[in-house]
Amino acid sequence: MAYKNEEPSPLVFIVIPIHNGLAHTRKCLAGVEEIRYPNFRVIVVDDGSSDGSSEYISLHHPDVILLTGNGDLWWSGAVNRGISRALDCRADYVC
Asked: How far apart are CA 28 and CA 70, in angstroms?
């Protein structure tokens, strides 16, 4: 007998900070597309990339929430900005 979950799955946000790593970003987002969890969203924080990362994400991953910085966020600032947006969107969990 299969277990049927009557309650909705918690909303999980995945925060991905990037800076000039288009090849890695492409692979990462391709991997995220394989996730089978039913209730998640992705936030990418692009901190001033000049390699076309934001354009690629906007074109090929329109469901991704894309936030940008000017290069001064670094890793921790980008993660904090992504977490803040996730919490604004009523995330149950942030990864």
From this structure: 22
Kind of pairing, strands 40-47 and 12-18?
Answer: parallel
Distance CA(44)–CA(65), nearest Å, equals 6
Give me the residues paired with residue 15 across strands.
43
pLDDT tens by residue, 55-71: 999 999 999 999 999 99
- Hey, what amino acid is at 95? C
Neighbours of 86 (CB within 10 A): 23
pLDDT in tens, 9-20: 999 999 999 999
Give the span between the Cα atoms of 54 and 69, in whole angstroms: 11
SS3 44: strand
pTM of the full structure: 0.91
Residue 13: φ, ψ to 5°: -110, 135
